[in-house]
Amino acid sequence: xxxxxxxxxxxxxxxxxxxxxxxxxxxxxxxxxxxxxxxxxxxxxxxxxxxxxxxxxxxxxxxxxxxxxxxxxxxxxxxxxxxxxxxxxxxxxxxxxxxxxxxxxxxxxxxxxxxxxxxxxxxxxxxxxxxxxxxxxxxxxxxxxxxxxxxxxxxxxxxxxxxxxxxxxxxxxxxxxxxxxxxxxxxxxxxxxxxxxxxxxxxxxxxxxxxxxxxxxxxxxxxxxxxxxxxxxxxxxxxxxxxxxxxxxxxxxxxxxxxxxxxxxxxxxxxxxxxxxxxxxxxxxxxxxxxxxxxxxxxxxxxxxxxxxxxxxxxxxxxxxxxxxxxxxxxxxxxxxxxxxxxxxxxxxxxxxxxxxxxxxxxxxxxxxxxxxxxxxxxxxxxxxxx
Amino acid sequence: xxxxxxxxxxxxxxxxxxxxxxxxxxxxxxxxxxxxxxxxxxxxxxxxxxxxxxxxxxxxxxxxxxxxxxxxxxxxxxxxxxxxxxxxxxxxxxxxxxxxxxxxxxxxxxxxxxxxxxxxxxxxxxxxxxxxxxxxxxxxxxxxxxxxxxxxxxxxxxxxxxxxxxxxxxxxxxxxxxxxxxxxxxxxxxxxxxxxxxxxxxxxxxxxxxxxxxxxxxxxxxxxxxxxxxxxxxxxxxxxxxxxxxxxxxxxxxxxxxxxxxxxxxxxxxxxxxxxxxxxxxxxxxxxxxxxxxxxxxxxxxxxxxxxxxxxxxxxxxxxxxxxxxxxxxxxxxxxxxxxxxxxxxxxxxxxxxxxxxxxxxxxxxxxxxxxxxxxxxxxxxxxxxx
Lengths: 387, 387
Description:
Peroxisomal Thiolase, Chain A, domain 1; homodimer; nine-stranded mixed beta sheet; 2 domains
């Protein structure tokens, strides 16, 4: 496999994008990534686009082809990939593989979603497309319900306390204040979090990521292509993708996602590193408790210690395991198909030393993108070129 | 790139599948393909699933993971791909690439759609997700409208006559009578076709493929893996994927799909053959006129001669350019995401010499799968192993 670089990045702000069509958001982000890399767009040999619910929510599919058309690309293979909330990570992996396997020298990975125009019932029904609707869906379960259950099991097994979980929210909302692309940073203490609306016990409003519109994009190139890149490139050390069960009953343990554990193992093996070598992490905090479970699944701390790490400030910028300096999904928002690409966007900025909430001397970054009830997972590892 | 074989095939009948869930259809087809190949399912290293409108029509996404779960596969990468009506062909290409590039030795390609439960307005709205809805969609255009326009241009430019186009319908409906998986074969002459309901001038009801449920699957293996396969394998010579415009105004000519022309050129080059070397073709006859345009785009006959070839019987089994001996989309039906996989299923049977409507001594087969307004195209070439 050939060495692959991220040579250009682009992203819209996440939030409400009113009248802008979904393809226009994606084209805007992709155009920025191409321009930043300083590469002629006719060199692009493949496009992968991550999207989850554009069909139900906007009535627009064939987004990969539409975006390529808008960008003026050649008659290249353009493919939409879907794996619920992991769609963006899956798009990145396929663009990476297109180059690593020698199919082409330049590839574009785009993620996009448009959700804020729909009412809550419509959005909830669309998001529930990520469950097995013959089992979990018909039971009345929603995703806040799933993560509320996971929290209760974590609390009972490990003694995880409300104020420890709140430390995740406080940190990520504060980090979001520093991120110009984030939908909603905030200064929040435990009292304010506990007083926010009850969504699904014990989850409160501030424990949940917002509904968002947005797009992010990455231009990837083969390292052996040529040296004249306009922006500082970052190396892809690993791109792993796994599956788990789409049913709660298919998970032997609600406090772990087997797809994350398997993807992390595969990614560490491909990169030739361990969790201890990672300097900065962007992981899938769709809910506050998810950051704790994901961190444990990724081996960033011992099992059952995720809550304590958050409460002790070890996951802040400046701590020994910085998690979601971007603000994570809780602050950035979660335009589903864009999230996995956005995580890499943020990590590239960290490895270039250009992030507005910079982790000092960050040389190795990890991103983690989880779909549905753990039905799909993407874990990627990136490295500063001079490290 | 490593040599790749189709080692097992499976398909449900196409038609109405009432209460069977969409994932169950896919699991049924995939299970048959795995069993036919006689391969331990734990060897499968990747799954690609082609589907177009399961989100809007069934409220179920994450089909790739759901199907893997139902099949009892390992924690492998499972990816849904979408490119409108070309989704199945795109799934096949990615399963092929996973093996050809050395990522894994065994991969599964599945295509599925469930449509017949929805009313016509809902289905039409879902199918229109394949257009650029800011231009063609809002104009009131539907896919019968697009192909009706293409027919009118073809008639004006080449003198194509109604009874020549009817020859496509008569042939494909007759072929469908021989195919046990087809939704609706029939014995139809020009008078009966002309007397069927007007859909969009000049398209009549029998010029249009029916709405369908169904699934098809292919198990692919690396040729260097091992020789103990239970069924006769067929070699993949080429798998090409291209894009075109998603807008009518983006096509300089309504009588040709540039995505097909580009995919055919790429596939012939990869296979090292020309159109004249192809013994049997399964192409995307979503409408009768499409078979004529597609045949010309694939170089199977000179430009403007597609209608004459049909009328002269040259595209029948026994003719010099046999097209759609399976009955094509017109007879088999068109469960959108399954169609591209089904075309390869039929072609594998031809190259094994096991097809119920066998083309004598068929050694090389071509499949052609076209999405939307030509926004995506997949052309694949397969070869009998001993040829």
